[in-house]
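ok so i was messing around last nite and threw this chain in just to see what happens. nothing serious, just curious
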Amino acid sequence: MAYRIVLLTKQVEAPFLRQFLHGQNPDLEVDIALSHAELRQAVAGRGADTRLICFNSQVIVPGDILQQLGPVPYNIHPGPPQFPGSYPIAYALKDRATIYGATAHEMVEKVDAGPIVHVEQIAIEPDISLDELTELAFTLGTRVFSFVAIHCAHNVDALPRLDISWSGEKSTKKSYRELCKVSSGASEDEIANLRRICGDDLRF
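result:
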């Protein structure tokens, strides 16, 4: 059958991700989707031969699109399996984690719930800054993407699943907003700690 990859990502990363895939297989058809509407258009009528790879996108792929896909779709989560959900960097900083990573997993209708196929992890200092961890998370995410892309550029088959499970409470955009809201009567130390975690998203 015909085979192509649709990348669900952001504008700034799109050309580099496409270039990497073409570097692995110059004949591979690679399309870009930057929004829910573009994704739906890209998949329409061609889901059976389309592999979806999501990288650094906040678009949640609905179940009806996932059901149209033939090859197993993958998401690159910018955090380790211990921090599923939205804004894993903030929750790692909140917990003063000593290990951080990025995770590739099969996409299912529930966010960050699909079987895990690859993890990159590294030790970090518990007092690492938001900027430093953000940069590290992106680097680890690109490593994970490379692993997935090298396989997917040539193979319609699924990657082997790892015996690793998601753990920890799954964060959401709502829980992150609540985390970053300064409560009345908060001390200067508490505010400073929230600023360390949330950066410019801190709200009074």
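not much to say yet. The first strand starts at residue 4 and ends at 8.
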